[in-house]
Amino acid sequence: MNAMKRLAIVLVLLTIFLSMILPAQAATINSPSLSGIQIFPKDHILNTRIDNLPVDAKSAIYITDLKKDTVPYTGLDYYLGIPYNVVNSTQRHQYITHFDFAYYSNNVAYPIPNNPLFEKGCDDHHMEIIDKDEMVLYELYGAEQLPDGSWSAGLGAVWDLKGYSFRKNNETPMWGTDESGLPVFPGLLRYDEVSAGQINHALRISVPAMQNTWIWPARSAQVNDAPDPAHPPAGQRFRLKASYDISGYPPQTRVILQALKTYGATVSTMAGRGSPVTIITSPDTRWNTADLYTLTGVGLSNLEAVDVSSVMIDKNSSQARQTPSASSSITVTSPNGGESWQRGTTHTVSWSYTGSPGSTVKLVLLKAGAEVGTIIASTSIGSGGTGSYTWPISSSGTTGSDYKVSVQSISQPTVTDSSNNYFALTPATTTPTPTPTPIANEQMKVGIYNGAWKLDINGNGLWDSPSIDKAFQFGTTGDVPVIGDWNGDGKDEIGIFRPSSGIWSLDSDGNYIWEVSDTSLSWGLADDKPVIGDWNGDGKDEIGIFRPSSGIWSLDSDGNYIWEVSDKSLSWGQLYDFPVVGNWNGG
Fold first, then answer.
1. Is residue 373 part of a domain?
2. Which of 70, 205, 218, 505 could be joined to 214 by an S-S link, Cβ 3.0–4.6 Å?
3. Averaged over 307-317, what is the pLDDT?
4. DSSP type of residue 104
5. For residues 210 and 222, is the Cβ–Cβ distance under 8 A?
6. 70-106 in b/e burial notation, b at 16+ Cβ within 10 A?
């Protein structure tokens, strides 16, 4: 059996473990900083936008094949499996004692630090090392430390992060540390990029099965496998369709989905039939796994294969021709001049956008051209080229007829626009203060929700002012408000359930602001009704849904926000019934 055949078998057997590893197993570390390090030039094919490139002629064939091969999975998934190390020129280099596949390896000294981070979720044992002074990427597959402290590996690959060269004098097929012959690290989904709000490179995905061939920029494939042209080849680029609405997803997921629209993902490895299309991710304890789990709601029909052949300059170079991308713009449509809005009322700020200005925007209030306040620090850009925000205008503050609103992309601050002309803010209506009607149960207060919340914090039955009572944005029009004591502090917190997607967003810390540390999860389907109760008597409220179409209740009995066999499911009711929850027997 020749070396290539043996390597193909080893890679297939080991990568199949990807579909068997729980994502949380590897998330025990925080990723090192890559601040100031450019991973390959900006015109490298892996750093090139593909949102304006044509759909591949075989896209429908590939998507149909992926949907068939991923059963029982229907959406995307993630694998928190491959960490990375950052070293500098002071790190001692050492030669690898033994390579299983020496012909395909770079037999140079590798700067392996003491106690290096490497993949432990499966036997692939990928080790990624970036020397930030050399600007060189060192990659090992099957890394194993021997009793004497030295290291052996299945294969080793070294990449110059400043250039476009492929390995081994452009010989093909040329295995890397995965089947495609491409570097692993540049395509990893990394927390530092997501937390910064923007990813500027293609992601790396595994698929159930690949063709036995490859396309540029890949350098190899499972060449000894039986041919099946329905499978995508190694190196095939996919993207999320521009029309797919990502506005309802939680913050971390929106950044990822925007990257899939703009830069796409490259088929680099395979995990065996019956495994999902998986985004390979670097572990970090700061990931919100509830956010990441919502990727499973992105059906594969929302992907399309992309033809990148038009940007190839030389088949033996990874440099890509940079085509003009669709220019991004934002245009404020309301208020746009002449409006008169009264303080203490609620109005809608709206805008349109073109291109890819990012997933979130900042709204600022201007008076006579000067910034006088932030309306909201971050809200969704919208979908389908339009966006809006329901603005609860403070009843206090300066009035005048020289106001404008500015809408600015957070990830691309130069993409911004403001009202064409001035609008007016007029004084709030003042009315005599009536004698409040006492509330029977002083522990309970009232509030309203219509896309924005207003809560009677002091319980006097009156709306006083934002400095006394509470007015804030959490959710959007069409969301269903939910109330519960999510954290067991004896006070109720707010949240929303989005019927269109089954997504919940809960204000876990009770500060009335959506943050990464809050809870986001997927539980339910479109048209389900949210229900809240302390199902297990632990002093905290848990979530659940009632499905009117079938009369089925599904309750998160253990409060871990994950549907499990041990959770409560019951049939009580029928079509058109409405769920009610209560402590009927005082138990």
1. yes
2. 218
3. 95
4. G
5. yes
6. beebebbbbbbbbbbbbbeeebeeeebeebbbeebbb
Contact between residue 530 and residue 524 where contact means Cβ atoms under 8 Å apart: yes
Confirm if 306 and 323 have CB atoms less than 8 A apart: no
Q: Are strands 303-306 and 237-240 parallel, antiparallel or unpaired?
A: antiparallel
Flag whether 193 is in a domain: yes
Do 348 and 299 lie in one domain? The reply is no
The full DSSP string for 382-415 is -BTTEEEEEEE--SSS--EEEEEEEEEESSSTT-
The CA distance from 233 to 21, in Å, is 25
pLDDT value of residue 503: 84
User: Last residue of a domain, which of 278, 311, 344?
Assistant: 311
Residues 273 and 359 occupy one common structural domain: no
Q: Are residues 373 and 514 in the same domain?
A: no
Q: Are residues 120 and 228 in the same domain?
A: yes
Contact between 55 and 111 under an 8 Å Cβ cutoff? The reply is: no
Per-chain mean pLDDT for the chain:
86
Q: Would you say 443 and 361 are in contact if contact means Cβ atoms under 8 Å apart? A: no
Q: Using CA atoms, how far apart are residues 305 and 60, in angstroms rounded to an integer?
A: 8
Q: Which of 31-40, 58-67, 77-86, 288-297 has the lowest mean pLDDT?
A: 31-40
Domain membership of residue 452 (yes or no) is: no
Q: In the chain, what's the furthest Cα-to-Cα distance?
A: 92
Q: E-assigned strands of 103-202? A: 127-131, 136-141, 144-145, 151-153, 155-160
Q: What is the span of the domain harbouring residue 507?
A: 474-571
Six token digits for residue 161: 């992060």
Q: What's the CATH code of the domain at 389? A: 2.60.40.1930
Q: How confident is the model at residue 17 (pLDDT cuts 50, 70, 90)?
A: very low
Place of tokens 């850009």: 381
For tokens 């039939």, what's the residue? 273
* Stated pTM of the model: 0.59
Q: Are residues 270 and 403 in the same domain?
A: no
pLDDT per position as a tens digit, 88-109: 999 999 999 999 999 999 999 9
Contact 322, 64 (CB under 8 A): no
Both 139 and 219 in one domain: the answer is yes
Does residue 467 fall inside a structural domain?
no
Residue from 307, 294, 183, 342 nearest 237 by CA: 307
Q: How many domains does the chain have?
A: 3
Q: Is 192 helix (H, G, I), strand (E, B) or coil?
A: helix
- Is the domain of 248 the same as that of 219? yes
Domain boundary among 311, 337, 364: 311
pLDDT tens-digit series, residues 110-159? 999 999 999 987 889 999 999 999 999 999 999 999 999 999 999 999 99
Residues 52, 56, 62, 67: is their CA dihedral positive or negative?
positive
Distance, in Å, from the CA atom of 272 to the CA atom of 12, rounded to the nearest integer, reads: 8
Characterise 168 by phi-psi region: left (phi > 0), alpha (psi -120 to 50), beta (else).
left
DSSP state of 6: H
Residues 60 and 194 in one domain: yes
Q: How many helices (H) and strands (E) does the chain have?
A: 5, 33
